[in-house]
Amino acid sequence: DAKTTQPPSMDCAEGRAANLPCNHSTISGNEYVYWYRQIHSQGPQYIIHGLKNNETNEMASLIITEDRKSSTLILPHATLRDTAVYYCIVRVEGSSNTGKLIFGQGTTLQVKP
Amino acid sequence: EAQVTQNPRYLITVTGKKLTVTCSQNMNHEYMSWYRQDPGLGLRQIYYSMNVEVTDKGDVPEGYKVSRKEKRNFPLILESPSPNQTSLYFCASSSWTGNYNEQFFGPGTRLTVL
């Protein structure tokens, strides 16, 4: 699975959009980009995933560059409850995959009042 | 409510005293997995199970055992716990349809081995 690089920490004002970048320059054509977050030692929570196209759900949007070497997770209106560690994970899907998620160090997002 | 439950949530024990951490999911998921989380090392997979009676080692299986006799349960067994197994443990599950789109994690079990 491709390695990802994320900034260790970011701040965001409450109510503003939080844009969390992730670099995955060695991503392969069949690797998906996943985002999970972990709020203060709770179990990680799935946010969103995508392959090539931009994706949006009720929690966030995922913007993947055309060359797929980087992506951005967007929380459109960050709240204090969004303060968490955000993990960008790149992995292959398919029958040969074990389902293992490789968590890096992630980005600690601090949402401030 | 769809969820993964773990018990106990907190446990303090002594070296060598066998213990079991239970994990149960109510979503009829085929895939289940155990992770441990340690400061500076992130989450690392211990064992996983693709379905009933099918288990395999993850990255850090030493000192652990698992079983999958029923689809909903995936207990983690420490036959002879040691202090280096002090950690935060998470169980996860997902549906296996060729993809693992969304994995659901339990609330965690904080284990201290003295």
Walk me through what this model shows:
The complex is a heterodimer of chains A (113) and B (114). Chain A has 113 residues and is mostly beta strands. Chain A has strands spanning 9-13, 18-23, 31-38, 45-50, 55-56, 61-64, 70-75, 84-92, 107-112. In chain A, the strands form two sheets. Chain A has a five-stranded mixed sheet with strand order 1-9-8-3-4, with no helix packed on it. In chain A, strands 2-7-6-5 form a four-stranded antiparallel sheet, with no helix packed on it. In chain A, a hairpin with a 5-residue loop joins strand 6 and strand 7 (70-75). In chain A, 35% of the residues are buried. Chain B is mainly beta. Chain B has no helices and eleven strands. Chain B has strands at 4-7, 10-13, 19-25, 31-38, 42-51, 54-57, 65-66, 76-78, 87-94, 104-105, 109-113. Chains A and B meet through strand 4 of A and strand 4, strand 5, strand 9 and strand 10 of B.
Question: Secondary-structure map with pairings?
Answer:
The complex is a heterodimer of chains A (113) and B (114).
Chain A: E1 9-13, E2 18-23, E3 31-38, E4 45-50, E5 55-56, E6 61-64, E7 70-75, E8 84-92, E9 107-112
Parallel strand pairs in A: 1-9
Antiparallel strand pairs in A: 2-7, 3-4, 3-8, 5-6, 6-7, 8-9
Chain B: E1 4-7, E2 10-13, E3 19-25, E4 31-38, E5 42-51, E6 54-57, E7 65-66, E8 76-78, E9 87-94, E10 104-105, E11 109-113
Parallel strand pairs in B: 2-11
Antiparallel strand pairs in B: 1-3, 3-8, 4-5, 4-9, 5-6, 7-8, 9-10, 9-11
List its salient traits.
heterodimer; A: 113 residues; mainly beta; 5-stranded mixed β-sheet; 0% helix; B: 114 residues; 7-stranded mixed β-sheet; 4-stranded antiparallel β-sheet
Taking all Cα atoms into account, the compactness measure Rg of chain A is: 13 Å
Helix residue percentage of chain A: under 10%
- Which structural class matches the secondary elements of chain B? mainly beta
**Uncertain stretches of chain A:** none
**Strand order, sheet with most strands of chain A:** 1-9-8-3-4
Number of helices of chain B: 0
Order of helices and strands of chain A: EEEEEEEEE
Number of distinct beta strands of chain B: 11
Shape of chain A: globular
Counting copies of identical and different chains, the oligomeric state is heterodimer
The beta-strand count of chain A equals: 9
Instruction: Give me the strand/helix succession of chain B.
Output: EEEEEEEEEEE
| Largest interchain contact | A-B, 19 and 28 residues
Helix and strand content put the structural class of chain A at mainly beta
Q: What distance lies between the first and last C-alpha atoms of chain B, to the nearest angstrom?
A: 36 Å
Instruction: Please tell me what the overall shape of chain B is.
Output: globular
- Note the beta-strand portion of chain B: over 45%
Low-pLDDT segments of chain B: none
